[in-house]
Amino acid sequence: MSRAGTSIFVFSFWVFGSGVALLFFPTFMLGLMAIPASAALVARIFGMVLLILGFYYFMAGRHGGMTDFYRWTTYTRPAAFVIALLLVVTGQAPPLLIAFVLIDVVGAAWTFFALRQDAQARSQ
């Protein structure tokens, strides 16, 4: 498994965990964000989507050789932070949301640097 593949593989567990938490414990997770429990159905649906995305990350990381996909994630995962920051700044989401998406940024940075290391190793 490449360094970048490992970063994607590990990130899949964060996505899986988030999906499970939202799917099976939506009221608790919504309470953390001070979101009304009436949004539980939406949270469960989002949890299901995260489980599916987690599967994609898991398989892509596990099988390796998907350098383009790994690179694409370095563009999209930090976007979650930017969007969350805008939601917090405009008062539409609580500041705790930043902590959740900060993991996306750290994971994307890990993948970015791992891609560079993998490219250097291939060129030697």
Summarize the structure.
The chain has 124 residues and is mainly alpha-helical. It is 84% helix and 0% strand.
What would your notes on this structure say?
With 124 residues, this protein is an all-alpha fold. It has one domain (3-123). Helix content is 84%, strand content 0%. It has 5 helices and no strands. The chain has helices at residues 3-24, 26-32, 40-63, 67-89, 96-123.
Please tag this protein with its features:
5 helices, 124 residues, 84% helix, mainly alpha
Distance between the termini: 18 Å
> What is the element string, with H for helices and E for strands?
HHHHH
Question: How much helical structure, as a percent, in the residues?
Answer: over 70%
Structural class: mainly alpha
- Show unreliable segments: none
Helical segment count: 5
Estimate the strand proportion. under 5%
What's the alpha carbon Rg, rounded to whole Å? Answer: 16 Å
